[in-house]
Amino acid sequence: MDKPDYSRLAKQVKLMAHPERLHILDALRAAPQCVCHLEALLKRPQPYVSQQVRILSRAGVLESERHGNNIYYHLSDPELLAWLDVVLGPVAEGADALGRHQPIEECSCPTCATAASQAVAPVILAA
Q1: Residue 14: CA count within 13 A, CB half-sphere
Q2: Among the CATH numbers 1.10.10.10, 3.10.290.10, 1.10.8.420, 3.40.50.2300, which is that of 6-91+98-118?
Q3: Which residues lie below 8 Å from residue 57, measured CB to CB, with a gap of 6+?
Q4: Residue-range domain boundaries for the chain
Q5: pLDDT band at 99 (very low <50, low <70, confident <90, very high)
C-alpha cells in the first residue's frame, strides 16, 4: 500500500479551513459562479472575494471560463469535491443539484439578471 501524500492532503485541508473559501467551494459545487455573484452571496467586497478565488485557483482546484465580460469559476478537483461532500453533506436542495445558477437579487451578473427575468410569479388560484 502506498503512503499517502501528507503534504498534498494538508494543503487541501488548509484550503477548506477558511470559512469564506469553504462557502465559495460550497457554492461552486452546485453550479459555476462569477465573482460578482460570489460577492453578493458572501456579502463581501470584490477584492476580498477575488483574493480568495485566486488562492483556490492557484491551488489548482478551480478553473475558469469567460463568457463576455464575466468569468465563471467551477471546481476542477474531483477529490476535493468528494471531501466537500463528506464535510458539508450533499449539495443543498435549494442549491439546485442540476447546476442551474440561482439568482441573487443584489447580483448584477448577466446570469442572475436573465434568471430573475425568467422567474415566474406564483399563481394564486381563486377558491
Answers
A1: 9
A2: 1.10.10.10
A3: 63, 64, 73
A4: 6-91+98-118
A5: very low
pLDDT digits (tens, 9 = 90+) for 14-31: 888 999 999 999 999 988
Looking at 61-116, which runs of residues are DSSP E strands? 62-67, 70-75
For residue 47 the three cell numbers come to 477584492
Three-state DSSP at 101 gives coil
Using CA atoms, how far apart are residues 39 and 35, in angstroms rounded to an integer? 6
- Give me Rg for the CA atoms of the chain: 17
97 confidence band (pLDDT: 50, 70, 90): very low
